[in-house]
Amino acid sequence: MSITLTENAAKHVANHLSKRGKGVGLRLGVRTSGCSGFAYKLEYADEVKPEDLRFECLGITLIVDPKSLPFLDGMQLDFAREGLNEGFKFNNPNVKDACGCGESFNV
Fold first, then answer.
1. How far apart are CA 74 and CA 82, in angstroms?
2. Are the C-beta atoms of residues 39 and 92 closer than 8 Å to each other?
3. Model pTM?
4. CB-based contacts of 12: which residues, under 8 Å, 6+ apart?
5. Residue 82 to residues 68, 77, 89: CA-CA distances in angstroms?
6. I need a labelling partner for 97 at 20 to 30 A (CA). Which of 35, 36, 39, 83 fits?
7. What phi-psi label fits residue 73: left (phi over 0), alpha (psi between -120 and 50 degrees) or beta?
8. What is the pLDDT of residues 51-106, one digit of tens each?
9. What are the two backbone dihedrals, phi and then psi, of residue 67, each rounded to the nearest 5 degrees?
10. What stretches of the chain adopt beta strand conformation (E)?
């Protein structure tokens, strides 16, 4: 089981953790939401809970709760700038369908 980052995503996370002046990594998860069933949760983590799973990629610690891992296994997180927009892109091989607005997905 694994989750990876692209170089762009790793640089972006490292820069934000440095600017924050604290944090142990990036926490990824899913929650029930939207018209397709699930939405991604993404936040900078200041601690690792005993039940959390940790993945190391390009110098960044990715933290995932055990319930979210089956939905995220094999995912690659990218960070892209397109025109005036920028943000994380979730390249998740588990997604079977996504809603039209792009806010939620199902597996």
1. 24
2. no
3. 0.83
4. 79
5. 28, 16, 11
6. 83
7. beta
8. 999 999 999 999 999 999 998 999 999 999 888 889 998 888 877 666 555 555 56
9. -70, -30
10. 4-5, 25-33, 37-45, 53-57, 60-64, 76-82, 85-91, 97-98, 105-106
What are the backbone angles phi and psi of residue 72, rounded to the nearest 5°? Answer: -110, -10
Distance between CA atoms of residues 69 and 18, nearest Å: 26
Tokens of 88: 């994380």
Q: Is 13 helix (H, G, I), strand (E, B) or coil?
A: helix
Cα 72 from chain centre = 8
CA 87 centroid distance within chain? 11
d(CA 91, CA 106): 14
pLDDT digits (tens, 9 = 90+) for 22-58: 999 999 998 887 665 778 899 999 999 999 999 999 9
Q: Using an 8 Å Cβ cutoff, are 74 and 94 in contact? A: yes
